[in-house]
């Protein structure tokens, strides 16, 4: 790593001491390093962004770092509405909506369950609560490969049952629908984390308030609705952002359970677009598609960065 | 960063009421009933499925699951391939890659994260701008990261080409197409994605250190370097542990990054065990072998996580 070693300049007369001189050099080195790393982190995004606004001609003959000479929005339009994902050439818009349809219910259900679980585990302790929590917490850390296959088998059987229902009563009740499957999978493997978030948050919530309400005759759900929920806004934001980012970005479950056909989520579709081997590779369209896939989570990060970080930290420094 | 303080206060209604009506008994059981579905789901879909996978790994399942136990054939094949074959098998490649990737990824992320956090902690003007720049990759999916870096590292399009155009024509960087080096490109992209987040963890840790301790050390004449080496870094030990856990866990799960960045690399040379598992289970119809590899992955994680969780969840003496 090359440091930006600026030779110590002859100091202005006001900086009499040599100490000041060293300090100045230090500052320059520190800022130089920080700027260099900022470049490292920004570079790929920058390249992706400028490439997505270039024509193919300019990409083949130009420099990847140069700004587009004649910015065009066409690659974005093509990525959204026309590019081929597998054999279907209708752009990625359908898959974008697939992801939305999967993310919204999965986030809502897993967050609410997490809130209830956290409430029970902290304010209605029972014998074995720590064990129950420990078992749920460990579930957050398993490599999902160790449950991938049984889940595929079960979802397969449920799907066949759905077809039977479809044939006999005219509706499959959503059984076997890929989006429904993914919502289910993400809820199942997400509640560990959401429970962890809410448990740690409610742990610090004054138990006296709950006790007092109980003495006043408030029921389990009344306390939850009237006392816990109104005070849970920050942790809701954190949990929702965390779950949203994770589920939106998931690729493993998506490719295992909805890896083909029209029901693919965004990440799988993007991978198909980029790794397709037929015809000329349209890099600008690929980059535009990648940007579109990244936008929702980037947007969340920009709008609520503080909570985003807190979510990551809570998920990390857990336990 | 709350610890698991197990509060002593029990809120279960005092069972003083003499006539426990059905209604009040229901009220007592309500909290457990609310928790039950989530717990049941976890038991079935996490622990039940793990047992199922372990069972499958002892069968000779191919394309479809078979439930006839056939001993540890799958494991013998895995390890047989590992040590007896020449050229190296894909399982051997996968675990070697896991070693290289895991070691470098964790080490560089920790070092870089700590380094950046210390730099940022020097009362930097513009910290508010720099921090989000370092951290945003964590918001991206591995697929997007893979796509971006694939382009950036492609010899014909990315960095190499750019430097050639700038006149440095002897510059050569084709790791992404080289079967011996492709795993290092995965390290680069992985570090790019996670190091900013590790920086944020360390920065939070640094901000939590009592300023008085630092002042005292400075008064005693400690140089900045000594200050960090002897005082600050030892104080950050818990953060190192948490960051290690996060990174180890991310490393073993990395699957998407290899797929998007390298499509597995030339001849599967960039595979990690997660890619091996997926390929053997779903594409090569070797379900038992795939399951065996998943079990080995799980055991690795168990060895790292369980002691950690145990020490965190243990009732702390007060």
Short description:
The complex is a heterodimer of chains A (319) and B (318). With 319 residues, chain A is mainly alpha-helical.
Descriptive notes:
The complex is a heterodimer of chains A (319) and B (318). Chain A is built from 15 helices and no strands. Chain A is mostly helical. Chain A has 2 domains: 18-75; 81-316, MetI-like fold (Orthogonal Bundle). Chain B is built from 13 helices and no strands. The radius of gyration of chain B is 25 Å and the shape is flat. Chains A and B meet through helix 1, helix 4, helix 5, helix 6 and helix 8 of A and helix 1, helix 3, helix 4, helix 5 and helix 6 of B.
CATH architecture of one domain in chain B: Orthogonal Bundle
Q: Residue-averaged pLDDT of chain B, rounded?
A: 83
Pair with the biggest interface: A-B, 96 and 107 residues
List the quaternary state of the chains: heterodimer
Q: State the end-to-end CA separation of chain B.
A: 19 Å
CATH topology type of one domain in chain B: MetI-like fold
- Major beta-sheet overview of chain B: none
Mean pLDDT of chain A, nearest integer?
84
Tell how many strands the DSSP assignment of chain B holds: 0
**The CATH C-level class name of one domain in chain B:** Mainly Alpha
CATH superfamily of the largest domain in chain A: MetI-like
Helical segment count of chain B: 13
As for the CATH topology of the largest domain in chain A, it is: MetI-like fold
Count of spatially separate domains of chain A: 2
Unreliable stretches of chain B:
1-12
H/E topology pattern of chain B = HHHHHHHHHHHHH
- In N-to-C order, the SSE pattern of chain A is HHHHHHHHHHHHHHH
**Tally of contiguous helical segments of chain A:** 15
The helix content of chain A is 55-70%
Rough shape of chain B?
flat
Which descriptors apply to this entry?
heterodimer; A: about 325 residues; MetI-like fold; disordered N terminus; B: mainly alpha
Task: Please render the helix and strand layout as text.
The complex is a heterodimer of chains A (319) and B (318).
Chain A (H helix, E strand, L loop, with lengths): L17 H35 L3 H6 L12 H8 L11 H31 L5 H11 L5 H25 L8 H11 L2 H13 L3 H9 L4 H9 L4 H17 L2 H6 L8 H9 L8 H21 L1 H12 L3
Helix pairs in contact in A: 1-14, 3-14, 4-7, 4-8, 4-11, 5-8, 8-11, 9-10, 11-14, 11-15, 13-14, 14-15
Chain B lengths: L21 H36 L15 H12 L5 H31 L6 H9 L6 H12 L5 H7 L16 H26 L3 H9 L4 H12 L1 H17 L2 H7 L10 H11 L3 H27 L5
Helix pairs in contact in B: 1-13, 2-3, 2-13, 3-7, 3-10, 3-12, 4-7, 5-7, 5-11, 7-10, 7-11, 8-9, 10-13, 12-13
């Amino acid at each position: 790593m090359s440091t930006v070693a600026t030779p110590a300049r002859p100091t202005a007369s006001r900086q009499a001491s040599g100490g000041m001189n060293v300090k100045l050099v230090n500052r320059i080195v520190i800022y130089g390093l920080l700027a260099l790393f900022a470049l490292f982190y920004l570079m790929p995004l920058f390249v992706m962004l400028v490439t997505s606004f270039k024509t193919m001609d300019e990409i083949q003959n130009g420099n990847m770092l140069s700004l587009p000479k004649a910015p065009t929005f066409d690659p974005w339009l093509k990525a959204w509405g026309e590019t081929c994902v597998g054999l279907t050439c209708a752009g990625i818009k359908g898959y974008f909506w697939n992801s939305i349809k999967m993310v919204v219910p999965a986030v809502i259900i897993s967050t609410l369950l997490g809130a209830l679980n956290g409430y029970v585990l902290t304010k209605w302790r029972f014998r074995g609560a720590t064990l129950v929590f420990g078992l749920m917490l460990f579930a957050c850390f398993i490599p999902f490969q160790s449950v991938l296959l049984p889940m595929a088998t079960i979802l397969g059987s449920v799907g066949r049952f759905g077809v039977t229902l479809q044939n006999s009563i005219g509706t499959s009740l959503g059984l076997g629908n890929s989006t429904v499957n993914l919502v289910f999978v993400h809820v199942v493997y997400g509640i560990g984390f959401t429970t962890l978030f809410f448990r740690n948050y409610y742990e610090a919530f004054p138990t006296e308030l709950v006790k007092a309400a109980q003495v006043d005759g408030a029921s389990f759900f009344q306390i939850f609705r009237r006392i816990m929920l109104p005070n849970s806004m920050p942790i809701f934001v954190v949990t929702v952002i965390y779950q949203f980012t994770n589920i939106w970005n998931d690729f493993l479950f998506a490719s295992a359970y909805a890896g083909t056909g029209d029901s693919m989520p965004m990440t799988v579709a993007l991978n198909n677009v980029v790794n397709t081997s037929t015809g000329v590779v349209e890099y600008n369209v690929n980059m535009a598609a990648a940007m579109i896939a990244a936008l929702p989570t980037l947007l969340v990060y920009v709008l609520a960065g503080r909570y985003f970080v807190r979510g990551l930290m809570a998920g990390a420094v857990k336990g | 960063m709350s610890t698991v303080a197990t509060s002593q206060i029990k809120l279960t209604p005092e069972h003083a009421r003499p006539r426990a009506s059905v209604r009040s008994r229901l009220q007592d059981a309500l909290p457990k009933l609310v928790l039950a579905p989530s717990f049941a789901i976890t038991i079935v879909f996490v622990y039940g499925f793990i047992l199922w996978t372990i069972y499958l790994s002892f069968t000779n399942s191919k394309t479809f699951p078979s439930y006839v136990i056939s001993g540890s054939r799958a494991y013998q094949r895995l390890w047989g391939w590992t040590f007896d074959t020449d050229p190296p098998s894909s399982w051997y490649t996968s675990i070697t890659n896991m070693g290289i990737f895991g070691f470098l990824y964790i080490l560089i992320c920790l070092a870089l994260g700590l380094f950046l956090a210390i730099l940022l902690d020097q009362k930097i003007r513009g910290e508010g701008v720099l921090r989000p720049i370092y951290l945003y990759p964590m918001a991206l999916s591995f697929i997007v990261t893979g796509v971006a870096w694939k382009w950036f590292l492609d010899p014909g399009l990315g960095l190499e080409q750019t430097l050639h155009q700038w006149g440095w024509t002897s510059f050569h960087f084709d790791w992404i197409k080289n079967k011996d080096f492709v795993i290092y490109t995965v390290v680069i992209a992985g570090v790019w994605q996670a190091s900013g987040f590790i920086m944020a963890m360390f920065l939070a840790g640094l901000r939590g250190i009592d300023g008085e301790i630092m002042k005292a050390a400075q008064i005693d004449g400690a140089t900045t370097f000594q200050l960090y080496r002897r005082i600050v870094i030892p104080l950050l030990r818990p953060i190192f542990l948490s960051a290690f856990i996060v990174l180890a866990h991310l490393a073993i799960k990395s699957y998407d990054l290899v797929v998007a960045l390298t499509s597995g690399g030339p001849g599967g040379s960039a595979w990690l065990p997660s890619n091996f598992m997926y390929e053997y289970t779903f594409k090569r119809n070797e379900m038992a072998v795939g399951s065996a590899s998943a079990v080995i992955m799980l055991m690795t994680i168990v060895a790292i996580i369980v002691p950690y969780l145990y020490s965190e969840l243990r009732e702390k003496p007060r």
